[in-house]
């Protein structure tokens, strides 16, 4: 449930609880968060509800949406019920995950000064351990192979491999240039034909596509995009506008800013990645804080843990349930090049991703003051986002304006559509909104 206002006593009580088990000031944000109001946003499980479904006769509110009504006009305060209904199985969830919750409460605080927007989030995880392991590799005595995966994967559902996937917090931002995002939120970017959605094309079909495939982006699956990037009224995955049209739209600011904090791929180096959505979900120019730690030709790791710094060269399968420390390979901190003659044994495990704060650069590295801490069964993520990053592929924020945000959380070792999402949230920077960023100066 998105509460546009909270009673004073509720705010004070929740804020005190929000900070009771953590310091009042983070290294990246010297803010006394007890003085910043807390708002709660209910995120719910959407299943396979897509932009196409939203506007189809199957959705009873399709006509109202066509007239410009907002999703919240009909569904305000019913997010939890909808999520519980969808996650249990049915036409919007043909492959339910046993035991998965239908909703999640996200506590949000916001503040600003002349240069930055400061955000603080807290949510309780369903799993009893944080999701800090992602794309791991296991040695079977003869060769390395990827090990574990999201709870939606068949091999994990059948108990053949453990659930290993990172927890994640995503933020979408629109400044009013994306048609109907203020009313329909992230459903604008979620479509039939995407991964784990109805009508998903084969990897061969995507690879042969002139824009998405080998002649363009080099992809083999379909990810988020905006309806305006397609040429047909159904916003089909393969009916992409020309690169010239997409470039013109981007120049006009018709895109969604998309930032993602990742518990495995960015949090260990106190960063989040930076991207945008238009014709596809793409990263900003530059270099992210993460890359592959796998030589695809030999299927061997590129780096291993530095035994002199870590005390061992790898993890083991038995470490997984304990939440190993460290769980991530950081190039400049705790790693050395992989040694094939280091006496590898069956059950040795290494991260399939390599992190580096030192190598991150450009617009992709804008979110370089983001910290996450898992304690008492909850994540607390503190985020500093410059109002103006100085890069064209980011939305500039201004004090005195409001912006439409969308929040999503991947929790309990899941990926793609198996997440929790919010309806559109109005964030005011120095002015009123569903969430109001209070001034610090």
From TrEMBL:
<keyword id="KW-0813">Transport</keyword>
<dbReference type="GO" id="GO:0020037">
    <property type="term" value="F:heme binding"/>
</dbReference>
<dbReference type="InterPro" id="IPR019020">
    <property type="entry name" value="Cyt-c552/DMSO_Rdtase_haem-bd"/>
</dbReference>
<keyword id="KW-0479">Metal-binding</keyword>
<keyword id="KW-0732">Signal</keyword>
<dbReference type="Pfam" id="PF09459">
    <property type="entry name" value="EB_dh"/>
</dbReference>
<protein>
    <recommendedName>
        <fullName>Cytochrome c-552/DMSO reductase-like haem-binding domain-containing protein</fullName>
    </recommendedName>
</protein>
<keyword id="KW-0408">Iron</keyword>
<feature type="signal peptide">
    <location>
        <begin position="1"/>
        <end position="25"/>
    </location>
</feature>
<keyword id="KW-0249">Electron transport</keyword>
<dbReference type="GO" id="GO:0046872">
    <property type="term" value="F:metal ion binding"/>
</dbReference>
<feature type="domain" description="Cytochrome c-552/DMSO reductase-like haem-binding">
    <location>
        <begin position="30"/>
        <end position="422"/>
    </location>
</feature>
<keyword id="KW-0349">Heme</keyword>
């Amino acid at each position: 449930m998105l509460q546009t206002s909270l009673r004073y006593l509720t705010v004070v009580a929740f804020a005190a609880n929000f900070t009771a088990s953590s310091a009042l000031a983070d290294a990246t944000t010297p803010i006394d968060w007890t003085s910043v109001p807390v708002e709660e946003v209910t995120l719910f499980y959407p299943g396979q509800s897509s932009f196409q479904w939203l506007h189809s006769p199957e959705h009873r509110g399709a006509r109202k949406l066509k007239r410009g009504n907002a999703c919240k006009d009909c569904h305000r305060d019913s997010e939890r019920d909808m999520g519980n209904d969808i996650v249990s199985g049915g036409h919007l969830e043909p492959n339910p995950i046993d035991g998965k919750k239908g909703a999640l409460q996200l506590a949000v605080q916001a503040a600003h000064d002349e240069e930055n927007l400061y955000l603080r989030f807290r949510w309780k995880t369903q799993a009893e351990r944080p999701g800090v392991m992602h794309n791991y590799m296991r040695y079977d005595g003869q060769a390395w192979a990827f090990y574990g995966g999201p709870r939606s994967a068949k091999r994990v559902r059948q108990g053949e491999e453990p659930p290993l996937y990172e927890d994640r917090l995503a933020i979408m931002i629109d400044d009013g240039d994306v048609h109907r995002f203020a009313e329909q939120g992230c459903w604008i970017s979620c479509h039939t034909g995407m991964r784990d959605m109805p009508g998903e094309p084969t990897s061969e079909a995507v690879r042969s596509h002139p824009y998405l495939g080998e002649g363009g982006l080099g992809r083999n699956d379909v990810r988020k995009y905006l309806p305006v990037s397609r040429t047909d009224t159904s916003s089909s995955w393969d009916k992409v506008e020309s690169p010239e049209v997409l470039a013109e739209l981007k120049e006009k600011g018709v895109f969604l800013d998309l930032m993602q904090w990742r518990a495995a791929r960015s949090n260990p180096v106190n960063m989040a990645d930076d991207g945008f959505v238009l014709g596809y979900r793409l990263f900003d120019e530059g270099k992210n804080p993460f890359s592959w730690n796998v030589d695809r030709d030999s299927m061997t790791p590129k780096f291993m843990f530095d035994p002199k710094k870590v005390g061992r060269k790898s993890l083991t399968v038995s470490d997984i349930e304990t939440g190993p420390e460290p769980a991530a390979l950081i190039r400049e901190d705790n790693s050395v090049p992989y040694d094939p003659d280091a006496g590898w044994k069956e059950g040795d495990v290494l991260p399939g991703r390599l992190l580096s704060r030192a190598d991150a650069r450009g617009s992709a590295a804008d979110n370089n003051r983001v910290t996450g801490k898992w304690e008492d069964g909850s994540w607390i993520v503190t985020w500093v986002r410059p109002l103006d990053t100085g890069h064209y592929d980011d939305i500039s924020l201004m004090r005195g304006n409001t912006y439409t945000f969308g929040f999503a959380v991947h929790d309990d070792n899941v990926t793609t559509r198996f997440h929790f999402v919010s309806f559109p949230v109005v964030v005011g920077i120095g002015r009123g909104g569903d969430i109001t960023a209070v001034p610090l100066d």
